[in-house]
Amino acid sequence: MEPLPRKRGRPKGSKNKPKATPVLLPGLFLVPPESGARKELALGTSAAHGLPLLEIFIKPEKPVPSQVFSTYWWFAYERQNVFFRKIRSPAAVSWTDDETIGRHKFTNAYRASDRVSQYLIGSVIPASDPALLEPEEMFFRTILFKLFNKIETWQALEKAVGRISWATYKFHDYDRILSGLLNSGERIYSAAYIMASPHFGHERKHSNHLKLLQEMMDRRLPDKLHQRKNSLKYAFEQIRSFRGIGDFLAYQYTIDLNYGPLLDASEDDFVMPGPGALDGIRKCFIDIGDYSPADVIKYACGMQHEAFAALELEFMDLWGRKLHLIDCQNLFCEVDKYARVHHPDAKGRSDRTRIKQIYRPTPTSIQYRYPKKWGLDDKIAADPGYERHAGAVSREHGGRDLASGSHRADW
Question: Which of 168, 166, 188, 190 has its CA nearest to residue 177?
Answer without folding.
Answer: 188
